[in-house]
Each structure stands twice: as structure tokens, then as C-alpha cells.
Fold Chorismate synthase.
Amino acid sequence: MRYLTAGESHGPQLTAIIEGMPSNIRLTAEHIDTELRRRQQGYGRGRRMEIESDQVRIVGGVRHGKTTGAPIALVVENKDWNHWSQIMGAEPTDEPIKRAVTRPRPGHADLNGGLKYKQTDLRNILERSSARETTIRVACGAAARSLLQLFGIHIGSQVLRIGEVSAKRSALSVEELRQVTEQSPLRTADKDIEEAMMRHIDEVKAAGDSVGGLIEVIAEGVPVGLGSHVQWDRKLDGKIAQAVMSIQAFKGCEFGVGFDAARLRGSKVHDEIMHDSQSGFSRASNRAGGFEGGMTTGEPIVVRAVMKPIPTLYKPISSVDIETKQPFAAQIERSDSCAVPAAAVVMENVIAWELACAFLDKFGGDSYEEIERNYNNYLEQIRNY
């Protein structure tokens, strides 16, 4: 299963084509729109969220609420396109280019992309590299979740840090965690710290600055044996880490105890194995975060990632104009002061996609019914091991 996306931040729409989704999977625009709404929420979002009200149109591969096995085509329109059609239009023009960007913003793709693709208007880089692109990736992840949920795999997240303010990690189940975090503007389960987090965001925003944070995603119900140890590029934790690190502004990823393994002794890092006749094999702990040898252990997958502060600042830092080579304050584009709660939803959905791909690699078939048979046979095999 794979997908490709296209579209710019201020273009007419964002588009995705998903190939390899089995038939007879229930998939509706309403299900995808739920994830798109979640992505737009969260304390610290900017004015763009007041303009856009993201909704998907399914324009291929689904009939009467079920996938057909054909490629799925998804479209999310940019409501702001009306104000940008002359600036971002595809047709040739003899008019002077409006709102050209020649001052690259530190921390963005602007300068590197301009040099690589020989662009004198850096808008051609920033429009595609914008985090607006994650909208359509969330839509693809929502489609993947439709598959996972049929087999009891559920995903949730919690924000553990906003800048200087840390939250207590909750050990709730994914279902319970979602009920709590969906009511939180910070997507945190620690209600005692919410006000401090919001005050911190407000202080940072008033200073014209931005703030990042730490996110944890948990996936429950994942069977043992997804991924593989036999080749480096088949290790599922590696694929998930790559997917997480591909999200704009993400700078670090860890599983289980993660970087704490550098200071802990081996007896405090590894998970002891247990067995009983009723439930089979299990672990006494989940310090590995659900992975050993690139494969799932059957324990919940626990992934944490760091999002850096958004580099578009209303208190701009220094840059150099690519035309005049003179120093200037970096050009400002509309931005959020904190997008960590929204990024948690993006992280959930890019992980959902990787899990769905690994699930199909293991139990693959052309229809839901074929996959279900393969999955049930595998569970029986494990029970009899």
C-alpha cells in the first residue's frame, strides 16, 4: 500500500491517491473529516485555522461507503484559494509576480530548496514544504485507521511537554486517553498543568516567538510479529521513526524508555518474558515500547517525538536576501505560535499508515474477508506455539 500527495499551501487543493487498499473496507468522508477537524484544533493555532474548515471529498475508489480495491482519490480544497488564484495560478502570465519571496527564513526549507531547484522566488519552495501538506497525510492516515480498527488496533496520543512546562504521563488505555485528551486544548491528560501550558504559549506569542514540545503516541491491539528482522528496511520501528521524522518541524524520535536507555542498566531496559496456558506469551514490562528486533512484541507501541518551535516568527531573526545578498529580517508568513497539539494528530496518523502497511504485508489480501481469514489463522498459530 502506498500513497502520493500533491498541492501547495495556497493552491486550489491538496490531493492524494492511495493504491493498495483492500476492498470491502468501510470508508466515509465523515470518518476522515473527524481526523481533519482534530488536526485543526489546539491552543496556539494561527489565523489560517479561522479560514480553512478542512473537509475531504472522496473522488475515486469508494462506492456506497466501501472501498472497491481500486485506487482511492482524496481531495481537500483550500478555502483561501480565492485570495491567491492570481498569485499561485498554474497558467503563464506576463504580469509581475506578486508576493515573491527572496528572503529565506531560518529553520525552513526556503534557502536549501531554492538552491537545489534553482528558484529565484522562494515561494515555490515554501508553498510545498509548508505543514499545510500534513492535512492530506492525515486524510490518508484516517483511511488506514479504517482498516486497523476492523482488527482491534486503536491509536491515541498525549502531549507531555509544551516548551518549559512538562505534564505527567498518563497510563490510561488508548480509549480512556482519547476521551480525556479530546477535551483538552493542549491534548494533554494532565489537567493540573493545562493553564500553565496556555500561559506559557501566551507569553511566548506576546514576545513574537514560538514554542515546541514533546508528544507521545500509543497504539494498542497490535499483534506480535509485524515488521521483520531479516533486512534493515523491513524493520517496522525504523519505518515508523522515518515517518515521524518526515513531519515538518520534528527533530527526534524514541520508543519505550528511548534515550533513557543510555543511562540505565540492561536489567532496567529489557522486558522479561512470561507465559501461561490461557494468554500465551507476554511481557512483564514494556520498556522496549512494543518492539524487539524490528518486530512488534504484542505489547502497546509507545513512540515519543520532539517538535521544535515553529521557525516562522513574528519577531523575525536575521537572514540574507538572495537577490541583493544584503542582510534583512526574515520574511514573515502567517503562522502558529504553537502547533504541538495539532502535530500530535498528524503523528498519530502517519504511524497509523505505517502500521496498516505492515499489517497488510503480514496478512495481505485483496479483500477484507481474505485478510480476516489470514489474520485469524495467524492468531491460531500463535496460540498453539
